[in-house]
UniProtKB/TrEMBL annotation, chain A:
Membrane topology: Multi-pass membrane protein
Name used for this protein in its record: Complex I subunit 5 family protein
Listed transmembrane segments: 29-51, 83-101, 113-132, 138-155, 167-191, 211-230, 242-265, 285-304, 311-332, 338-360, 380-399, 411-431, 474-492, 512-537, 563-583
Pfam families, per database record: Proton_antipo_M
Signal peptide: 1-22
Organism in which the protein naturally occurs: Streptomyces pyxinicus
Occurrences of domain NADH:quinone oxidoreductase/Mrp antiporter transmembrane (ranges): 132-404
Localization per Swiss-Prot or TrEMBL: Cell membrane; Membrane
InterPro entries (UniProt xref): CPA3_Na-H_Antiporter_D, NADH_UbQ_OxRdtase, ND/Mrp_TM
Keywords linked to the UniProt accession: Cell membrane, Membrane, Signal, Transmembrane, Transmembrane helix
Family: Belongs to the CPA3 antiporters (TC 2.A.63) subunit D family.
Automatic annotation (TrEMBL), chain B:
The protein's name in its UniProt record: Sodium:proton antiporter
Family stated for the protein in its record: Belongs to the CPA3 antiporters (TC 2.A.63) subunit B family.
InterPro entries according to UniProt: CPA3_antiporter_subunitB, MnhB
Lineage: Bacteria, Bacillati, Actinomycetota, Actinomycetes, Kitasatosporales
Localization annotation: Cell membrane
Keywords: Cell membrane, Membrane, Transmembrane, Transmembrane helix
UniProtKB/TrEMBL annotation, chain D:
Protein name as annotated: DUF4040 domain-containing protein
Keyword Kinase: no
Gene3D superfamilies recorded: NADH-ubiquinone/plastoquinone oxidoreductase chain 6, subunit NuoJ
Record-linked InterPro entries: MrpA_C/MbhD, Nuo/plastoQ_OxRdtase_6_NuoJ
A Pfam match: MbhD
Record bears the keyword Signal: yes
Primary localization: membrane
Signal peptide range in chain numbering: 1-19
Annotated localization: Cell membrane
UniProt organism field: Streptomyces pyxinicus
Transmembrane stretches, start-end: 29-47, 54-72
Membrane topology: Multi-pass membrane protein
All copies of domain MrpA C-terminal/MbhD, residue ranges: 11-77
UniProtKB/TrEMBL annotation, chain E:
Membrane topology: Multi-pass membrane protein
Name recorded for this polypeptide: MrpF/PhaF family protein
Keyword Glycoprotein: no
Domain of life where this protein originates: Bacteria
Pfam families: MrpF_PhaF
Keyword set, alphabetical order: Cell membrane, Membrane, Transmembrane, Transmembrane helix
Origin species: Streptomyces pyxinicus
Length: 585, 249, 119, 86, 150
């Protein structure tokens, strides 16, 4: 069975390359059907492997089995989290492809399959990154993922904002990747190994942590946290996610950002968790601090957006912060909760982006102010948008609610309040949009000075849609149903918990199921979200941007140089946060 | 210049610099003897009769990385095709034929075959001497563009049917994957180099599947580099939008 | 001298990386910024190869020397650097393609004048 | 002796990198980058990595500067034709 | 002590410093000339290094540089032709010095290698290097009517 693991990368690659080779003569339908079959087939394979991932599998590519515990080959991991992320990425790619069925008006001349091929490459890259058990191999797939994502983000080259967002995305992420590679080189110098667990053993054999371990930790984490859009590495995300084509946004916000978080979890757990790595207290300090900052900045910025896709992008940042906090406390329960949260969030966020895409193609705008009351006729979309908002708030029995309640219990104390507030604010912002755009409630809000409006966008289809195609409404509906199923399906939580704990957490087992406090907190967050949205719609002046929010918004300057400077500050911050234990050790 | 950015840069740069310098002082000294993975790789390469250990690492021991690398190149080509496509508000204006001084023309046309042969030589000797599919592929692709230098863009376009190069590129990626799958079907593992005999050390056919994978990479790179350059040349020389006028005014 | 030599290559790599970052942050032209990114990347090549160097060693390519006759440097970092160079070239190409489109759609390549995405 | 050549090429590389960053005009930067490519190839040779040196020569001294120059030409051509019309 | 490596160090150090100074200062034509000089300084150094390390296979690097270096310079000259208009820096002294350096390196390497396939390769490199160098220099110095155009 384990021999099949590399197929999760190979099949999508072949599926992207063969149509490109057969190329120019293939009709569009044939290319799109190939895309479905390949993407779905890979998803099915990932699912099959996932169901057989107890005990965890490993595969040495090229048959270079270790001799005396050492190998010259590359190891691919087939444990629960790795295959789970691969499955999630595959299924979401399938959803995005279904959503974009007959969608873009004009594929490049002679390259009908380019979009499908890029999506398949993206899928292969995400699977490869999720399965990577070798640090340099992880870097390669990380770069593949990035390169495809830049191209997909800038796909609509007619749009000034799209190409600008894609370039910012490209520069910041590439710099992060190079930082990561510097870190890998430092680790290789110390241990002479590239496999993650081999590096971990090498560090432990060398003794306590020193400056080199700290620097390599900071550099590798920089790369991963840039992808995970952690404050202060997050600036590229709203610029890129707000402008990418909708099906791409579904993938970027739904899986790619989460893969950064997953990578940080994996790398810490296998490389730096031993006695030669970064002490647990330091990691907790670093991740929880950055996580809280990220969640707070994301939530505040989310609330003050009028560009709907940008608003959703900031809510992704806010939730990434929550993921980091949950992983940062380093308990098995925290890991379980976040795993469930990520799955639920992916489905909900993708569904919300899909609904925003419907607005874009129907009205040529994703601006909350300009669309005020105009989408009353889109009842189904409106209902789904509202349900998505409730899912974001963590209303039981959504999967997000289950994950959040487990993570809240693991984090405990004041962090619980953070979880409730952040999910309530982001959900409240989405509910506010629902109320204004789909119901036309409240007065039309006034424009602020320093912001990105969502008007004047080009629809992604050939001209404005008169009626919304069935695929564009079915996909979000299915995704929302999936988010519900994650929370409702009996035993699913425990299944996830078991496979996560088998892969990490040092043998400790926890279970994940609904508890009374969790349900109550979920209900509280939802209630708070509804109240916030109601206040915002009926009394706009009460919740208008206070003066302290203005500098925060001004930081998001759209200038790539600023973002690079922030990236450097971020590495310093990360180093400072993790420093005490290294000095002590 | 923005004051805030300079401050951030100063703080972040100082912090990162301190971190990196501290790490450098903890690194094993330059030129040290301990390279466990490297030593294992050399032994593994010799066991498989591959003279160039780097080729062995690239196309055998860590062939999976090279698969990712090829995909990156393939993705970049697809990406550039998408990003540099001709939009509705642009048109093509064939450039005027350029006057090229005769010595330059002669030089370019003489060097062209030499460069092509060198490219092929570098690809073919990949598993023996320094070089390989990647290096040779770029040289071969560059060689083609000597036509632009020696004649003009029109001449280059005539010998450069882009579709063929794009197909080559995609076919090469596919064949790399298919070679990998063959290992899987033979019952060993993905990208396992166990299908073919390892041959005599230091000959062109040594190393099992390594020469095949190397050739696939060479084809891919040559195709990809040509297509990439073609799209940039198109943009720089031919494609114009409404705001542009004829060149040479 | 010999002590300086122990760390000099690593320090050069760190210096090149930071220089590239400085250029990237203060760039006034997007094509220049992409060039600076390429400089940042060359730091990774230097670091990787410096890590794999062995004093008195030669390349582990046995077409013109007998295996085992001379000490050899680490081949793995060289393979990694090769991959890295390809990655660098492709990223440069893609980013330049994006810069060209920015020049078309915004009419400028000065990052200070790109003021659409903010807040 | 072997160290002297490494030191010289390392310092040259650092100087070239600095020059590549401080040349603010992209066309001039492309020239420096191509020199940087050649110097890096020499550095890789003295670090006993001829394979890497070859690909750095192919990419760094030919492909990347060419791509940059083509981009510069395109952006300049736009700038010029715009000025002409104004 | 290895005379080959010492010579290569001197070529790299001296040539490199001169190239760097030339490529960062002065008018565009001078910069391109300096870029061309990079090829003619580093290529002989690579030949010398190949001898110094006792590795004939390193010669491929010099071959590639001798092939691609002048091509790169000519491409720059063509794409920057507008900036070059009116400038005619002639640097014949420099050009012939560089050519002499290349010739000396090739001859020395040939003498060390002795007759055979290796020598043919070295001669090809020498021809490519010197021809490319001279052509590129002449093109830049305005020796030809025009190198510009579409």
């Amino acid at each position: 069975m384990h021999h099949l693991l590399p197929l999760l990368v190979a099949v999508p690659l072949l599926g992207a390359a063969l149509p490109a080779a057969a190329g120019r003569r293939l009709p569009r339908a044939a290319v799109e059907i190939t895309g479905f079959v390949v993407s779905g087939g890979t998803g099915a394979l990932a699912l099959l492997l996932l169901l057989n991932s107890t005990p965890p599998m490993t595969e040495w590519v090229g048959g270079w089995l270790p001799v005396g515990g050492q190998s010259v080959g590359i190891v691919v991991l087939g444990d629960g989290p790795a295959l789970g992320m691969a499955t999630l990425a595959s299924l979401l790619t399938l959803a995005a492809l279904a959503y974009s069925w007959r969608y873009f008006d004009a594929p490049p001349h002679g390259h009908t399959g380019a979009f499908t091929a890029l999506m398949l490459l993206f899928q292969g890259a995400m699977c490869g990154f999720a399965l990577a058990g070798d640090l340099f191999n992880a870097f390669v797939f990380f770069e593949l993922m990035s390169v495809v994502a830049y191209a997909l983000t800038g796909y609509r080259i007619d749009e000034a904002r799209a190409v600008q967002g894609a370039l910012t995305f490209g520069v910041v992420n590439s710099l992060g990747a190079y930082a990561m590679l510097m870190g890998i080189a430092l680790l290789y110098a110390r241990t002479g190994e590239l496999g993650m667990s081999a590096i971990g053993r090498g560090l432990d054999a060398h003794g306590g942590p020193d400056a080199l371990v700290l620097a390599s930790f900071v550099l590798v984490m920089t790369g991963l946290l840039v992808k995970a859009a952690t404050v202060p590495f997050h600036f590229w995300l709203p610029d890129a996610h707000a402008v990418a084509p909708t099906p791409v946004c579904m993938l970027l916000s739904g899986v790619m950002v989460e893969l950064g978080v997953y990578g940080a979890w994996r790398v810490y757990g296998t490389v730096f968790a031993g006695p030669g790595g970064i002490p647990a207290a330091d990691l907790t300090r670093a991740l929880v601090t950055l996580g809280i900052l990220t969640a707070a900045v994301g939530a505040v910025m989310c609330w003050y957006q009028r560009h709907i896709k940008r608003l959703l992008a900031y809510s992704t940042i806010a939730h990434t912060g929550l993921f980091l906090v949950g992983l940062g406390v380093l308990t098995p329960e925290g890991d379980d909760g976040i795993a469930l949260y990520v799955v639920g969030h992916a489905a909900v966020k993708a569904a919300l982006f899909a609904c925003a895409g419907v607005l874009l193609d129907r009205f040529g705008s994703v601006d909350e102010h300009a669309l005020h009351g105009r989408a009353r006729s889109l009842r189904a979309t409106g209902v789904m948008f509202a349900i998505g908002a409730l899912g974001l708030a963590g209303l039981p029995p959504f999967g997000t609610g289950l994950g959040k309640s487990v993570a809240e219990e693991a984090a405990g104390g004041p962090l619980t309040v953070g979880y409730v507030l952040v999910s309530a604010i982001t959900a409240g912002a989405v509910l506010r949009v629902t109320a204004r755009v789909f119901l036309g409630l409240g007065p039309r809000p006034e424009d602020a000075e320093y912001e990105t409006s969502g008007s004047g966008e080009e629809p992604e289809t050939g001209g404005l849609l008169r009626r919304v195609p069935d695929t564009m409404t079915t996909v979000p509906a299915v995704l929302l149903a999936a988010a519900l199923a994650v929370g409702v399906a009996p035993g699913f939580g425990d299944l996830v918990a078991r496979s996560v704990n088998e892969a990490g957490s040092g043998g400790a087992h926890a279970s994940a199921h609904w508890t009374a406090p969790g349900v109550l907190l979920g209900l509280a967050a939802t209630a708070l979200a509804v109240i916030l949205a109601a206040l915002a719609v009926t009394r706009p002046t009460w919740l208008a941007a206070p003066s302290w929010a203005a500098p925060l918004r001004r930081l998001q300057s759209g200038h790539v140089g600023d973002y690079v400077a922030w990236l450097l500050v971020g590495t310093t911050l990360l180093g400072a946060l993790a420093l005490p234990g290294v000095l002590g050790g | 210049m923005n004051r805030l950015r300079l401050w951030l840069l100063a703080v972040g740069g100082t912090g990162l610099a301190a971190l990196l310098v501290a790490a450098c002082l903890d690194l094993p000294r330059f030129g040290g003897r301990s390279h466990p993975y490297g030593d294992r790789a050399v032994h593994a390469s010799l066991r498989r009769h591959i003279a160039n250990t780097i080729a062995s690492v690239n196309f055998d021991q860590r062939a999976y990385d090279t698969l990712g690398e090829m995909s990156i190149l393939f993705a970049a080509v697809l990406g550039c095709v998408v990003l540099l496509r001709q939009t509705r508000d642009e048109h093509r204006a064939p450039p005027e034929p350029a006057e090229v001084a005769r010595p330059v023309r002669r030089y370019a046309l003489l060097v062209l075959p030499v460069a092509l042969v060198t490219g092929l030589y570098v690809i073919a000797h990949g598993q023996l001497s320094p070089g390989g599919g990647f290096q040779g592929g770029v040289v071969a692709a560059t060689a083609l563009h000597l036509l632009y230098l020696g004649a003009d863009y029109g001449a280059l376009e005539r010998v450069r049917p882009l579709g063929v190069y794009e197909t080559t590129d995609a076919l090469a990626v596919s064949s790399y994957v298919v070679l990998g799958l063959a290992g899987l079907l033979a019952g060993t593992a993905f990208l396992a180099n166990t299908l073919l005999p390892y041959g005599t050390f230091n000959t062109l056919s040594s190393g099992g599947t390594v020469p095949l994978l190397n050739a696939a990479v060479g084809m891919e790179v040559a195709g990809a580099a040509t297509v990439l350059l073609a799209h940039f040349l198109d943009q720089a020389v031919e494609i114009e939008d409404a705001t542009e006028e004829e060149p040479g005014k | 001298m010999s002590h300086a030599m122990d760390v000099l290559p690593y320090l050069v790599a760190a210096y090149v990386f930071l220089t590239g970052c400085y250029g990237l942050a203060t760039s006034r032209h997007l094509i220049h910024a992409v060039g600076c990114l390429a400089v940042c990347q060359s730091a990774t090549y230097i670091l990787l190869l410096a890590v794999g160097y062995r004093a008195g060693g030669t390349a582990p390519v046995f077409s013109d020397i007998e295996p085992g006759s001379r000490p050899v440097v680490d081949p793995v970092v060289q393979a990694l650097t090769l991959t890295d160079i390809v990655v660098g070239a492709t990223v440069t190409a893609l980013l330049l393609a994006l810069v060209l489109q920015i020049a078309k759609r915004h009419g400028t390549v000065d990052p200070d004048e790109l003021r659409e995405l903010r807040g | 002796m072997a160290d002297a050549v490494i030191v010289v090429t390392l310092l040259l590389t650092a100087a070239c990198a600095t020059a590549a960053v401080t040349q603010r005009d992209p066309a001039r930067q492309a020239l420096v980058l191509s020199v940087l490519g050649v110097v890096l190839a020499a550095l890789f040779t003295v670090l006993q990595a001829p394979d890497v040196g070859l690909s750095q020569l192919a990419v760094g001294s030919a492909l990347t500067p060419l791509l940059i120059m083509l981009s510069v030409r395109k952006t300049r051509r736009r700038g010029r034709s715009k000025e002409d019309r104004e | 002590m290895n005379g080959w490596i010492l010579a290569a160090t001197l070529a790299l150090g001296g040539g490199g410093a001169a190239v760097l100074w030339g490529v960062t200062t002065g008018p565009p034509a001078r910069r391109i000339l300096a870029q061309n000089l990079a090829t003619s300084a580093v290529c002989p150094a690579l030949l010398l290094l190949s001898q110094g390390y006792g590795r004939p296979s390193y010669v491929d690097l010099a071959l590639l540089l001798a092939l691609l270096g002048p091509v790169g310079t000519l491409v720059f000259a063509r794409l920057l032709s507008d900036d070059l208009a009116g400038e005619r820096p002639s640097a014949w002294g420099l050009t012939w010095t560089a050519a002499g350096l290349g010739l000396a390196a090739v001859v020395a390497a040939c003498a060390a290698a002795g007759p055979g396939r290796a020598m043919v390769k070295l001669l090809v490199i020498g021809v490519l290097l010197i021809a490319g160098n001279v052509i590129a220099s002449r093109a830049l110095a305005g020796g030809f009517r025009r190198v510009g155009g579409g």
